[in-house]
Design brief:
Blueprint: E1 2-6, H1 12-15, E2 23-26, E3 34-37, E4 53-56, H2 66-71, E5 75-77, H3 84-99, H4 102-113, H5 120-127, E6 140-144, H6 148-159, E7 163-167, H7 173-178, E8 184-185, H8 189-195, E9 198-201, H9 215-219, E10 225-229, H10 238-247, E11 250-255, E12 268-270, H11 279-299, E13 322-329, H12 334-344, E14 349-357, E15 360-367, H13 373-380, E16 385-392
Parallel strand pairs: 1-2, 1-3, 3-4, 4-5, 6-7, 6-9, 7-8, 9-10, 10-11, 11-12
Antiparallel strand pairs: 13-15, 13-16, 14-15
Amino acid sequence: MFKIQTLDRISSIGLDNFSRDEYEIASEIVNPDAILVRSHDMLSMELPQTVKAIARAGAGTNNIPVKELAQKGVIVFNTPGANSNAVKELVILSLLLASRPVIAANKWVESELKGKGAEIASLAEKGKKNFIGQEVKGKTLGVVGLGAIGAQVANTAIELGMNVIGYDPFLSVDAAWSLSREVKHAETLDTIFTKSDYITVHVPETPDTKGLINAQSIRTMKDGVRIINLARGGLVNNEDVIDAINSGKIGALITDFAAEELLGNPKVVCLPHLGASTPEAEDNCAVMAVKELRDFLETGAIKNSVNYPKCKMDEPIPQGGTRLCICHKNVPNMIASFTSVLGNAKLNISGMIDQNRNDVAYSLIDVENKVEEDVQQALKAIEGVINVRPIYN
């Protein structure tokens, strides 16, 4: 029986995809085989050596020491696209919030008109001139990052009558297929910055993207540009944006990442990280995370890992046989070493696949017989092998 530890509240709809005959699931569990997590900080957490995989029910993995775990042979999964509709809808709301000062208008109505009785209608008519906005139709939206969320935002903006420019040097085939033909592709970020009335960012925070929106990039933007950041707080230099708002260069900032320097500015709307905060998104992420863990634990398959390559055997594990799941360094002669050990043990290989990602690799080897402990130890002793896990049928 596999043991699964949950570090946060995980949707029961997702957890129901675990067979209770084969899985034990609890927040407090000894020596888990895998961990399900949402926002729990795992960066300084000491993991039991039994942990083989971690699944993050969400896209970002900033709370997980991904690189360190790769060197320990712990597979880290995320759930790209599972919460994309929830975030997309909030981005579209943010477009409208950046265009029409409805929050300020509502505050004015609540504070200034309360108790005015019969005068409310006439006072509202007089006061509405202070809350004039603009329409998004016909304006240009620049989308930085055309993954699952960015592509959906771009397509919806097209349906709203906007002109859309998208930038993504790492655009996947799946994302490209999903994009509307009316989305124009920018070759550089400068195109996004110079031509957009609205800019929304949908990229991870890395050393290359940190501070993407800063004083230098802001100088190249249109006057009155509206910025939307529901991706990661570090993508925007808050001090530079506030300076640009105060000078009139930026017309509005809508962000899901509140910070002291942003609060109290009438042209900034800070949200408390609401991006994927819908029950539907939580359910979708949990279902995907559970499926990833089940596929990995039961068949050795890897999909949507952030630190190991995609890898899957098309054929089932041989009847009475063993599937060896081997995490190893991405160095020469590893496959030859594996086959040599198995050959010396007079074990017949019926199928094999090996994939690599950066400095690590992952092999699945199907053997027609049960691979005994001494052979497993011989495989583990090979220089460059991180760990070996057998799955028996």
